[in-house]
Amino acid sequence: xxxxxxxxxxxxxxxxxxxxxxxxxxxxxxxxxxxxxxxxxxxxxxxxxxxxxxxxxxxxxxxxxxxxxxxxxxxxxxxxxxxxxxxxxxxxxxxxxxxxxxxxxxxxxxxxxxxxxxxxxxxxxxxxxxxxxxxxxxxxxxxxxxxxxxxxxxxxxxxxxxxxxxxxxxxxxxxxxxxxxxxxxxxxxxxxxxxxxxxxxxxxxxxxxxxxxxxxxxxxxxxxxxxxxxxxxxxxxxxxxxxxxxxxxxxxxxxxxxxxxxxxxxxxxxxxxxxxxxxxxxxxxxxxxxxxxxxxxxxxxxxxxxxxxxxxxxxxxxxxxxxxxxxxxxxxxxxxxxxxxxxxxxxxxxxxxxxxxxxxxxxxxxxxxxxxxxxxxxxxxxxxxxxxxxxxxxxxxxxxxxxxxxxxxxxxxxxxxxxxxxxxxxxxxxxxxxxxxxxxxxxxxxxxxxxxxxxxxxxxxxxxxxxxxxxxxxxxx
Amino acid sequence: xxxxxxxxxxxxxxxxxxxxxxxxxxxxxxxxxxxxxxxxxxxxxxxxxxxxxxxxxxxxxxxxxxxxxxxxxxxxxxxxxxxxxxxxxxxxxxxxxxxxxxxxxxxxxxxxxxxxxxxxxxxxxxxxxxxxxxxxxxxxxxxxxxxxxxxxxxxxxxxxxxxxxxxxxxxxxxxxxxxxxxxxxxxxxxxxxxxxxxxxxxxxxxxxxxxxxxxxxxxxxxxxxxxxxxxxxxxxxxxxxxxxxxxxxxxxxxxxxxxxxxxxxxxxxxxxxxxxxxxxxxxxxxxxxxxxxxxxxxxxxxxxxxxxxxxxxxxxxxxxxxxxxxxxxxxxxxxxxxxxxxxxxxxxxxxxxxxxxxxxxxxxxxxxxxxxxxxxxxxxxxxxxxxxxxxxxxxxxxxxxxxxxxxxxxxxxxxxxxxxxxxxxxxxxxxxxxxxxxxxxxxxxxxxxxxxxxxxxxxxxxxxxxxxxxxxxxxxx
Lengths: 477, 477
Known about the structure:
Aspartate Aminotransferase, domain 1, 13% strand, 477 residues
């Protein structure tokens, strides 16, 4: 093949892949000659060939452009929103690969523009998105540049102070010197686990558990042991004690407040008891407290960290559920493991983006975070009631539900015979998603459970979708 | 202790730790009562005690505020910029803990406001910071909210397309479907390594090597084997072949373009040879190409990826050296390991912040990236010449230097007798930083080497600092 043909073929392929879109200008002949290291003549030859193929057109005085017709003819078919498209095959779940199942659920929500009962994320329209972005913009205006070195781990000092301040105001005094800023709670959990345990170790988790816990364990080559968890009281402390007596446990990962998926708030006495049990065996506790601000009660609940006297609790949280998810600001309070977590943060992702850190700090200092949260809590509390009432109405006898005390998810036990993976697929074909119970365990115990997200505004469409879901369940019973 | 005393003590401690700053309002009595779960009377008691201690003052109609004097008296001393402060003890480097040494070097640059010859980062003032932030601001204006689910791995589709487009324009056609967006190249390298090797495996690296490579290996519990690397030709392919013949190598991590610290551009023929050698043994190559756009020659150099026919090259890069470091936008082209890298990204940090992704995409599509880069390349090329000339003038006989062909660092071999850790400490006491050679190896071969950053504008102060450095070296000879 001649050189100009090769170049023309590369360009054709790039248009086919959507790299160059319809109407976009491609490189000038001079630029292309320089960048590809070929002569002007070769480029002219290649572009002439592309013109004759109908891929580009030359416009006087302005250069070569991708033709609309060419892009349409060559480009991959754009995904059709929702209904008209056949659902992707859902993963067969005999052998559970939890992270694959979760990622595929998330993708199908996106691809199908479906009713997002299956989403793990809160409705972003409730977030003060524009306000926070105004702070981001103000930072750019007042700073001529930004030196990465200023926000290296542990993170931006003012953000750290604002986080400590919020804890102090919520009755949980913390040392700002303990805080390490991370990329969301996901990274905080990963780093915390890596700081306290090594590949091959066994980690105790709730059952069902929030799948990000299982992901962290999977990613780090550790093993999970699931401990029975009560829908109102949290992890069964006696059962955990038995597990500890039987085998070496490197860490315990729990979500004492508004656990995802169960929604419970572990009573204070049991939190204290859990911290005591783990401390007696010198077992670190990784506490995922991402829903801390989304309580339905009077005030922010206590945390395991509150009762920690030995520095064994690694407390992880973020603003992703309460302020903005797309800024990815999380943090860890790693107790005695602080130095390790800080170093691991440095090794893992160097630092968290600066503008989001400072914008959140400015918002916290100057804006109406409390007012915003009061509104969100009220909305979630109301929508929890609505969804609970409607599941009761639309779903068959034998359906049972959690009683969320915060957060935005409902855990639904369907009649035994219903396979939630089949339900997931049948619902997806109708552009409705659910969270299959199997995402929350490596065992097969929750095959007839689903998790439903009630953070989205309640509409006639949502109600119709829930009704459809109820009918599908009835058909499967 | 009474309840109100406990509350007052907590508040005093929070002011001491700087959680509440001078002049800031603390919670209202009603709010504090609710948040701390105590009676109004208890809060009133506590606040009265705080007033009597001089910690807070009440202002009519507006609430309680932290007194300036209290904050000054109690708060930890603010770090003094630079000169007046005794340097932190640098780590003793008998046993090299590379990541600790790097982190402490970075910290001292920040803490001392020192001349940043030791910085690994480019001068941020050359970045089009305001322009990029304007795009970020425009995104916030045109979007009412942002759904996290839209940018899940592999990342924002338009950013991916723009990256693919840039490669195509630079004569390296890539499939956009291969790209995975990460949090800087740091995460791309970590995920790539984790995708191809497991704890205990041995990974071949250049010697000296960019320390982030050693960090990734350290973090994942693998072992590094260093292969002699030529200051102009790159890794010694014959030496690598011998290593491969002797033992099992799980991966090879290299930086063929403008290697940090050596600055070489590996010749095309040797790149091809390296890819061939590794392919013959089915060994994945992790290619760190973060300086790809900072070439001093005519056009962007080729990459290992260019010669990869088996999908064994995991190509990693970012915008941190060429556009903005604080946005943390990196990516991987992981070849046949794409699915694993995408999944690991999801498990590690869920997703990269949305606004930075879209802002960079918008900048690339609409703004003068090429013009910006031409300017940066010119500045770096000039400053490389200046620093080279001045090191020749100020440093003693026996000093040798690299000849950077791109990037912004100079690698300097000092006379044998000079210990760069001692030089680092002596320079720090004069508010000058250098990159000690020991950061770039787990062996002791580079104890008399330093890395100097020439990205900052050349001033009388910089020149004086370089002169001082030369004198320190002379004293140590």
